[in-house]
Amino acid sequence: MIALAIALSACGKPSQQYATDKADGVYFTVPLGWTKISTLAINSAEAKSTAAGAADRLAAVHWQVAYTLAKSFKAEQVLSLKTPEKPVIYVRVRSLLPDEINSVSYNTLRNLVVPITTWASGTDPTAPALTIHDDFEVVEKGGRGIFTQFTFKSSDGVDQTIDQAALMSNDHSTMYIMIARCSATCFTKYQKEIAKIVQSFTVRGPK
Asked: Which residues constitute the domain of residue 58?
């Protein structure tokens, strides 16, 4: 069962929103004041996609939720690569499809949002400017994967910075993703707040 609770600080006053997918053992915290975009809203937006395999991937979703400092941000924008002016945090948990279970690698996880490995290789002359700030393995109780922080020139002409944590469950049946993004300028402004949210992302796995 999915629940959202308020975490209380030591003085008894609410300081954070606590988001959890209990069935999959996933949780993270977000400061109060961030606006939630629900699983239902994101599912409804994703259902409109006509991309190949989109319906199958949506059917495999266990939970997805987003939080943002933008007051009027829409679910459709969560799924878009257009650069947001305020930070957006997006978390998605879904089953891997049968053809993915034995084929997902760390490079697959790196390339979930944009083809980082191709862009970084220098083999694509149309690739936008890309800077990889950090890239390291993440090992959690419920799975392991890759954390990557990078900045690229988005199609809207704005430098966009992304923090991306992507993990596979230990049995390779489930994928856990957290994406934090906004313009490079915005990211610098909210860096400490974003980092705290990303660092709170925890994958315990089902009990």
From this structure: 2-203
pTM (two decimals):
0.91
Q: How many domains does the structure of the chain reveal?
A: 1
pLDDT above 50 (res 88): yes
CA-CA distance, 24 to 125, in Å (whole number)? 41
Sheet holding 26-31: strands in order across? Answer: 2-8, 14-21, 26-31, 202-203
Task: Calculate mean pLDDT across residues 73-101.
Answer: 94
What CATH number is associated with residue 114?
A: 3.40.1000.10
Task: Quote the CA–CA distance of 170 and 167 in Å, as a whole number.
Answer: 9
Predicted confidence (pLDDT) per residue in 166-184, tens digit: 999 999 999 999 999 999 9
Average pLDDT, the chain: 92
Handedness of CA 85, 65, 154, 82 (dihedral sign): negative
- Over residues 120-138, the pLDDT tens digits come to 999 999 999 999 999 999 9
Q: In terms of C-beta density within 10 A (0-12 exposed, 13-18 middle, 19 or more buried), how is residue 124 classed?
A: exposed
Kindly give, in sequence order, each residue whose CB lies less than 8 Å from that of residue 73, ignoring residues fewer than 6 positions away: 35, 37, 66, 84, 86, 88
**DSSP characters over 44-96:** HHHTT--STTHHHHHHTEEEEEEEES-TT--HHHHTS-SPPSS-EEEEEEEEP
**Which of 95, 4, 42 is closest to 104 using CA atoms?**
95
